[in-house]
Write a structure and sequence with these properties.
The complex is a heterodimer of chains A (122) and B (469).
Chain A (H helix, E strand, L loop, with lengths): L7 H9 L11 H8 L34 H4 L7 H9 L1 H4 L13 H12 L3
Helix pairs in contact in A: 2-6, 4-6
Chain B lengths: L6 H16 L11 E5 L3 H12 L3 E5 L31 H9 L4 E2 L7 E5 L2 E3 L43 H4 L5 H7 L4 H9 L12 H12 L10 E2 L5 H8 L11 E6 L4 E5 L4 E4 L1 E5 L2 H4 L8 H8 L2 E2 L2 E8 L12 E4 L5 E6 L6 E8 L3 H5 L3 H15 L7 E8 L11 E2 L5 H8 L6 E4 L9 H20 L1
Parallel strand pairs in B: 1-2, 1-10, 4-13, 10-18
Antiparallel strand pairs in B: 3-6, 4-5, 7-8, 8-9, 11-17, 12-15, 12-16, 13-14, 14-15
Chain lengths: 122, 469
């Protein structure tokens, strides 16, 4: 009771057995659904975060009526795949003291997929 | 509105490839589509919802006879007070969106009445705090009320600039909170008051200063309307219930998992009923004390870390108060004490003349209470309660006793981090081990509490999706 069975050798052996080969990267659509859509719509509605539809045509922090952090507003410019990827990779570095609280680390490949997918949304 | 999800496209692209790689010889579990989720709290249910949405066959197993875990609305008590998670922050995006999507109504909670103070046995009415003789704080601190003392940490909080609270470079400076506060210039009297009702460790000496920065940083980044809290109108437990109801398979209740084993091709769980469940992977969405009850093979470093993460002790006595006795005495209704009674939260019941009173005792003050049987525990608390507020006795009924530490499927209210511990323990506690994946508020990164549980369910779903892609 109340203790793990520490069978490290058995575990190491298990891990050495083949499981799944590394598959295709998760799609941008899936990543948006799992990691973004609770806070961001692709339409016009504001959730905890601003809507992201048409982000490719917008300046950073430009959705009317959304209370962006000063940190993000100060970055300026239009969103690009590269700037979106930089933002998603490290929000704190891109805009220190931003209000976006996303810390579930995505891989670099996933961030690229997600950024490209987001930039393609109408 | 979001665009419709191309579920089929994803399944064709990734799951089918998993079928080729699995080679389990078991058609029902070797498809790459069967997910076992252990624990029907918010973390497990969020993971289950995501995996179901993306076409997987998800089976959720729960030891208790209800879903919700440490969300536990006391439905048998007037006012439906929360025995567990009670705060939905305005920035809890996953929680708010899930509630909205499932038609679970939210409301602004009725305001808890302000506190007066019982310090060193002396009663201090709220307006008198700054000038009260019994206020132990030095001159420049006297205007700060006890519940706001910890907020002074935000004057110098490194986590207002970054959320990497267990980054090694930050954790190198972590220290016991009592020593850390002293080094920051907090007077001894302030440290003692903070220690009296510390929710982030069982003793201040065992509490990580960085963990306190984390909590305060969360509040420090919010301001104005962003601080507005929400709750589910009919009780927070309606949210996990709604999440469970939209799963394709009903959650299996009252059947604890005894053992989970894994092979190269899948996992197998043995339940207390004798039933076994086979799956491609298991998501263990449990508080660590409950996880420790399951026979598992884990890497030694991970097993060791899990042995040493403590949980917070909370005892609550929920009462119904028929009449606002405090008004006659010019009192505020709630109390903040530095004694064994902890804090008393008085909250009006909407549309009712009565109030919910919650006596909230935490940390090591719970130790003696946790050894008692229920009647003795209730008697010990009410004896101190009637001494503090004698007028309450005639109009107050005890409705429910909640003790989180003796609850074998919780082991406490939430994980607490010892000084320096989160440096390695936080990452190790959630590291996938073969086909075993871990969720629960203790594994969350950016949030704590209800949203932390939701966040962890999302993170573990991503890990599972990667594994099966």
């Amino acid at each position: 009771m109340n203790s793990f069975k520490r069978r490290a050798r058995e575990f190491a052996l298990l891990c050495a057995l083949p499981v799944f080969a590394e598959g295709a990267p998760l799609s941008g659509e899936l990543l948006f659904d799992v990691a973004c859509r609770a806070c961001h719509s692709l339409g016009a509605d504001h959730r905890v975060g601003p809507p992201l539809g048409g982000i490719a045509r917008r300046e950073v922090g430009s959705v009317e009526g959304y209370p962006y952090s000063e940190a993000l507003m100060a970055t300026g410019g239009n969103w690009t795949v590269a700037s979106l990827a930089a933002w998603l990779t490290d929000p704190d570095r891109f805009a220190p003291n931003t209000t976006m609280k996303y810390n579930n680390e995505l891989t670099a490949t996933e961030i690229q997929e997600l950024s490209e997918w987001l930039m393609a949304q109408p | 509105m979001t665009t419709p999800l191309s579920r089929r496209r994803f399944l064709q692209a990734s799951i089918v490839s998993a079928i080729g790689g699995a080679n389990t010889g078991k058609a029902e579990t070797g498809s790459g589509k069967k997910i076992l989720v252990v624990g029907a709290g918010l973390a497990g249910l969020n993971a289950a919802s995501i995996m179901t949405r993306w076409g997987f066959d998800v089976e959720v197993i729960e030891a208790r006879n209800r879903v919700g875990g440490r969300l536990w609305t006391l439905d048998h008590v007037p006012g439906n007070p929360e025995g567990g998670g009670n705060v939905i922050g305005a920035d809890y995006g996953r929680t708010l969106f899930t509630a909205q999507s499932l038609g679970v109504p939210l409301r602004t909670p009725p305001a808890t009445l302000p506190s007066d103070y019982l310090i060193g046995g002396q009663r201090i009415l709220r307006p008198n705090w700054p000038s009260a003789v019994a206020n132990p704080l030095p001159e420049s601190w006297r205007g700060v009320t006890p519940e706001r003392l910890l907020g002074k940490l935000n004057q110098n909080n490194p986590l207002l600039e970054t959320r990497r609270w267990h980054d090694p470079s930050l954790m190198a400076d972590d220290k016991p909170a009592d020593k850390g506060l002293k080094a920051l210039g907090f007077p001894e009297a302030a440290i003692q008051l903070i220690s009296a009702n510390n929710s982030y460790g069982n003793r201040l000496e065992d509490t990580s200063l960085m963990a306190l920065y984390r909590v305060l940083g969360e509040f420090g980044r919010l301001s104005g309307p962003a601080l507005a809290l929400k709750e589910v109108t009919t009780g927070n437990m309606r949210l996990p219930e709604a999440m469970a109801n939209q799963l394709k398979r009903p959650v299996s209740l009252g059947d604890p998992v005894l053992r989970v084993t894994q092979s190269a091709s899948g996992v197998s769980a043995l339940l207390a009923s004798g039933r076994s469940v086979e799956a491609d992977l298991a998501i263990l969405a449990l508080p660590i004390p409950a996880l420790k009850r399951i026979e598992l093979s884990l890497p030694e470093a991970q097993a060791d870390v899990l042995q040493h993460i403590a949980y917070h002790k909370v005892v609550q006595l929920h009462c119904i108060v028929e009449a606002p006795y405090w008004r006659e005495y010019g009192e505020s209704g709630s109390w903040w004490t530095d004694g064994p009674l902890g804090r008393l939260f008085m909250r009006p019941i909407p549309g009712d003349h009565r109030h919910n009173l919650t006596v909230w005792i935490n940390g090591n003050d719970c130790d003696r209470l946790n050894t008692m049987n229920e009647p003795d525990c209730e008697a010990a608390i009410t004896t101190a309660l009637w001494k503090l507020v004698p007028a309450a006795r005639e109009v107050t009924t005890v409705a429910a006793l909640v003790r989180w530490q003796p609850d074998i499927y919780a082991g406490g209210s939430w994980a607490i981090w010892a000084p320096g511990q989160a440096n390695k323990a936080h990452e190790l506690a959630r590291a996938p081990a073969g086909r075993l994946f871990f969720a629960g508020e203790h594994t969350a990164e950016a949030y704590r509490g209800i949203e932390g549980a939701m966040e962890s369910g999302e993170r573990v779903a991503l890990e599972a999706l990667r594994f099966l892609s």
